[in-house]
Amino acid sequence: MEAFLIGAARTPVGRRGGALSAVHPADLGGHAIAALLERTGADPATVDDVILGCVDTLGPQSGDIARTCWLAAGLPEHVPGVTVDRQCGSAQQAVHFAAQAVLSGTADLVVAGGVQSMSQVPIGSAMAPHGPYEGSVGWAARYGDQEISQFRSADEIAGKWGLGRAEIEQFALDSHRRAVRAIDEGRFRAEIVPWGDCDTDECPRRDTSAARMAALAPLREGGVTTAAAASQLADGAAALLVASARAVRDQGLRPRARILHLSARGDDPVLMLTAPIAATAHALRRSGLRLADIDLFEVNEAFASVVLAWLRETGADPARVNVNGGAIALGHPLGATGARLLTSLLHELERTGGRFGLLTMCEGGGQANVTIIERL
Questions:
Q1: Distance CA 114, CA 85 (A)
Q2: DSSP secondary structure string, 238-288?
Q3: Is 232 helix (H, G, I), strand (E, B) or coil?
Q4: Phi and psi of 63, rounded to 5°?
């Protein structure tokens, strides 16, 4: 059994309060799904399931947003939908579930992706007022009463791997420069589904500089991480079509890539953001590939220190990592980012003629997903 990627489409990533901020998440996600089906030529009536990632499923993102997106797009009512929350890895996990359904033979055609409006549902809304750990006897017995935050994690990773503020901010600056270059060269054009006049990612900053970054105060007293070295709050949606060989044959679909490997691993939930290191090693062992076999890597830029630590531990070539910028520049609509990254990875492999691409990202609770695709 094999699972194929037939197509991948995404909205532009809008900055918080920007061009997509007033768009209902159901309409945003439905827009990406409808474009995906139109571009691939797949019959919507034959889709077995719709699996979307979303974090903070409150208000307009509540009530199983995957199902609402499908219906808001005017698509057949008999197709169900389910929403996934693996924190920042939600959309990547949605693709994993879709591929697993196809690989198991229980589905032939699945739409997978994610949607997030951080303008309408502020980050952490679902954790208010007490958060996920307060009051848990078992958690307290194991981890005590200590700060659990990504800001702390980013700083502790910087300390553990000896990353100074200058190195961190140079990485962040390079992310903006790579993203601006990609936009100017039209590298994202084929993957983006415009929303009205919004046809370009809004978050990259052409005017940023090392001096501007150096002037910012750290997010935590005594820390080295500032807002400039963190992912940007954003709005967006992305969708991919995962198909079996039978669906490809019956509908005359054109596979663009094979999902070669999918896995997830856990790590220290207090340090939280280091799991991509072990998850990448695990994925390479299971797939039989070497680091040198991977043509392109996407490692989500939750914070610059996360990617820099991953680079130190894996020894990957920085020139093959986040070649068109990452979430520091392009934004991180939490529940959609995994699908956005996989969409961009597929298109960049096609643009450059690469064969293998690897996507990994840190996630709340000290987790990480890894997806390896092979361009066909």
A1: 10
A2: EEEEEE-HHHHHHHT----EEEEEEEEEE--TTT-S-HHHHHHHHHHHHHT
A3: coil
A4: 70, 35
Active site residue ranges: 88, 332, 362
Residues 179-200: pLDDT tens digits?
Answer: 999 999 999 999 999 999 999 9
Asked whether the bond before 129 is cis by omega within 30 degrees of 0, the reply is yes
DSSP state of 154: H
Residues 68 and 135 sit within 8 Å (Cβ to Cβ): no
Q: Which residue has the tokens 């961190």?
A: 168
Token pair listed for 62: 């509540």
> 338: part of which helix (H) or strand (E)?
helix 337-352
- For the entire predicted model, the pTM comes to 0.98
Same domain, 283 and 303: yes
Question: Does residue 183 belong to any structural domain of this protein?
Answer: no
**Tally of CB atoms within 10 A around 22:** 12
Give the torsion through C-alpha atoms of 336, 97, 320, 348, to 10 deg: -70
Whether 53 maps to a domain, the answer reads: yes
Q: Are 77 and 50 in contact (CB under 8 A)?
A: no
